[in-house]
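Dear H.,

Thanks for agreeing to be a second pair of eyes. The structure we're designing against is below in token form, covering all 178 positions.
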């Protein structure tokens, strides 16, 4: 992988779009669990949640491929900070894929495909193990909380680098000049 001076426009756009979508999906997920059968959003909200989730999954796969092809800048900071940043980035991606997989398992355990914005359907594998929806639901729920917590730490670290260390960590992701 080639190293660059800053993140390219494509990766910056994907980063910020992903951040907004993941935060929005987290908020929507919290809101959805309290919907009742009689709510007008009872069927609409899960449809949108699943559709956006599939789109975020595709965007994340594209992002990883783009990073591998185009490269990323070096991480700044002490050896500990660089190691922690690498671990945090890998964990963020791992959590995203756990959330994607568990969401898929929740949504398709009844054998129905996931209809993505009425554009196309992701085929279902059905129930692969007993209590699949409940187990996958718990994993989805807790992984989402861990993801948001780690994202908050990620943002705090970027702000620390910008305001305290006064290095280019944040500028590389917002496109600012060094």
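And this is the sequence the design step returned. I haven't edited it by hand at all.
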């Amino acid at each position: 992988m080639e190293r660059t001076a800053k993140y390219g426009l494509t990766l910056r756009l994907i980063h910020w779009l992903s951040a907004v979508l993941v935060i929005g999906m987290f908020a929507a997920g919290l809101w959805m669990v309290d919907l009742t059968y009689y709510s007008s959003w009872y069927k609409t909200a899960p449809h949108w949640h699943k559709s956006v989730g599939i789109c975020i999954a595709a965007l994340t796969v594209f992002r990883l491929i783009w990073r591998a092809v185009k490269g990323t800048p070096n991480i700044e900071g002490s050896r500990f900070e660089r190691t922690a940043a690498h671990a945090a980035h890998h964990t963020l991606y791992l959590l995203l894929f756990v959330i994607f997989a568990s969401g898929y398992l929740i949504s398709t355990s009844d054998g129905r495909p996931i209809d993505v914005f009425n554009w196309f359907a992701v085929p279902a594998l059905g129930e692969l193990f007993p209590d699949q929806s409940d187990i996958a639901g718990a994993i989805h729920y807790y992984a989402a909380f861990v993801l948001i917590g780690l994202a908050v730490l990620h943002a705090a670290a970027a702000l620390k680098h910008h305001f305290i260390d006064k290095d280019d960590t944040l500028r590389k992701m917002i496109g600012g000049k060094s």
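Two observations from my side: The chain has one domain: 3-174. The chain has a mean pLDDT of 95.

Warmly,
E.
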